Amino acid sequence: MVALNDLPDEIILGIASLVRVRQSPNHLLFLSAGDVTIAEDLSPEREGLKSFSMVNRRIRRIVLTTWYSVIQLHGDSDGMLKMAQLLRTFRENSQAAAAVRQLYVCMDPISHEFTSDFLKHNEEVATIYETARSVGILFPTSLFPAWDDLDYWGKTLLKRADDPKGSTDFEVYDHSDSEDILITQESIRREAEFGLFGNLFQILLLHTAGLRELIAAVPYNAWLPISIDPFAGGQRGNSNIPAYDARRLLPKLTTLALRPVEEFVEHGLNASVIATLLAIGPNIKELYLESCLLLTEFWPLKTLKNITHLTLSMTRVSASQLRVIVGACEALSTFKYTPCSDKELFFGAKPVEPGEVIQTLLPHAATLKTLCLEYFDTDPHVFITKPAGQLRQFTKLENLWIDGFSACGSFGRLSKNNSENDLENRGPRTVYFLQVFLESLPSSLETFHWSDELFDDMEYLEWIFEKLERFPKLRLVEIQCDAGEDDMPVVWRVRRALVKAGIESPLYGEMATNAEIWDKDF
C-alpha cells in the first residue's frame, strides 16, 4: 500500500482540491445576516484543508498555494492584528502572497475598538511602517496618505483622546469650505480607527496582485483618505489627488462585492469611493453592492464601462442614479435588483419601480442575458404603480427571475382578506397586466423563475405549458410560492407537463430561493 507521503505532487494537489473551501463568501454575503454566520459556514471547510496541510512539511509546501488562494479575515477585537500578521506572512513569503485569488474581509474598527490594542504589538506596527515606506506610500504622489499621517493619527490622536487632562472638544477649521467643525473625543477616535484600518487594508492589497475576487464588509469610510488635521487645521493626506490617478494595484481583479458593516449601513457610497475602488481594479467585470446607500448622482462613468454583471441588493438608489449607473455599463449582460423597503428610504424618496428598471435597461436589450427583479420580499412592501410591462425587446434574454408583484404592480396583490369589491375591481386589471407580461416573454428564455402570491388558485400558470412551443430553448422552470402550496393541483399539473416535455421543474424545497445567487451554476 502506497503511503500518503509517497504520492506524487499532482495527486497531493488533487486531494487538496477536494478539501479546499468551496463556498464563496460572495454568495454567503446575500444569504447571511452577518459575519458570524458566514464564519460558521466557512470554518469547517477551512479546517479540513488546514488539517491536511499539517500532515508533514512536504504536503504543507505542496498545498501552500491552495491554502492561501482563499483567505477570510473575520474581525473582532484582534482584527487589525490578524491583518498585520497576514501582511508579515506576505512580506516573508512572496509565494503565499502571489497565490491569493479570493479575499474576504469583515472588519468593524469602531465597534471592536481594536486599534489601541493593536498599537501595543510593536513588531507588527514596525512591519506596517517599514512596508508603507518600502512601497512608496508617501504624500502626495501615491494612492494612500503618507505613513506620517498614519503615525500621527494612530499614536498622537489616540493618546490625546485618551488623555484625561485633555479637552473633550476641539474646534477645527476646514479651509476648504470655511465652516467650523466641532470634533469630539469620539470623532477623533473614529477618524484614527478609520485611518489606520483603511490604510492597513490597502497596504495589504498591494501584496495581492493576483487577486481575482474581493469581498469586503467594512465601513466605506475606510476607503477615503484622511483630510482634516484636528490640531493643526487645514488639509492633510492626499484628498486633492483625483481618485482616477490611483495606481492599478489589482490588474487581475474581476469581482468586487461590498457590504457595510451593521453600524454603518446609513453611511453611503460616494463617487470618490467608487472611483478609487474601480481604479484599484480597472478590469473588474462583476460588481455586487449589498445594503448600500448611494450618495451621488455623478458616478465615475469611464470606470464602469467594463462591468458586465451588476447586482444591487437592498440598495437605496433613485431612478436617476440607476439610469446613470446602468447607462455607464456598456457591456452589461447580467442585472439583478432587489429594492429596500419604503421605511429604509430617506427624505420621502421613492424606490425605483419595476417599470422604471425595465426602461433603464432598454439600451441593453440586445445584450442582456440575465435579469432578476424581486419586489415582494421587501417588508413593508414597496407600493408599485409601474409594473414591469413587456420584455419583448430583450431578444437575448436567457435567464429571468421575477415575481408577480413586479409583473402586475400593487393592484395585483390579492389575498384572502380582500373584499369581493376589491377582487372585482382589481382582478381584471391584474389579469390584463399578467397576460401582457407573459405574452411578451422572449423566445430566447432558457431558465425562468416565477415567484407568486397573487392568486389563490393560480390557474393562470397553465399558460406556461400551453405556450411551450414559443420557448424552444427552455430547460428550467421554477415556480416559487408558499411552501404549503406545493400540493396545489394546478402547480402539479404544470410541473408534470413541463417534466413530460423534458423541462426541469423542481419542488419548492429543491429550488433556489435567492435571486442574488440564482445563476451561480449557469
From TrEMBL:
Q: Which domain of life is it from?
A: Eukaryota
The UniProt entry, under InterPro entries, shows:
LRR_dom_sf
Its protein name is: Uncharacterized protein
Supply the source organism for this entry: Colletotrichum orbiculare (strain 104-T / ATCC 96160 / CBS 514.97 / LARS 414 / MAFF 240422)
